[in-house]
Request: fold
Amino acid sequence: MLVWVIYDIADDPIRKKVSDKCKNYGLYRVQKSVFLGDLNANQRDSLAIECEDLIDPEVDSVYIFPMDDESFRKVKLIGQAFDKELVSDEVLTTFF
Reply:
């Protein structure tokens, strides 16, 4: 299932660690603090736990939003858009 990971983290080193976690799970960076990609439920839960261990919940936030394919097709891209095909199953399979 596609997931959006969106975070607001005050500390640069912690922000970098969360970013690295997202990359390690194969997520595609959409914006500086926004990642998108395909994770199964176990991966999604593991990423959430790992991020929770890194951040300061008093000042930081990490949102992990699951999204079904039908909703993803309805995403409106305005301005400098990310490559929707890059995060779709079709293009990802060509890289692996």
Notes: The two ends are 18 Å apart (CA to CA). Residues 31 and 79 are 12 Å apart (CA to CA).
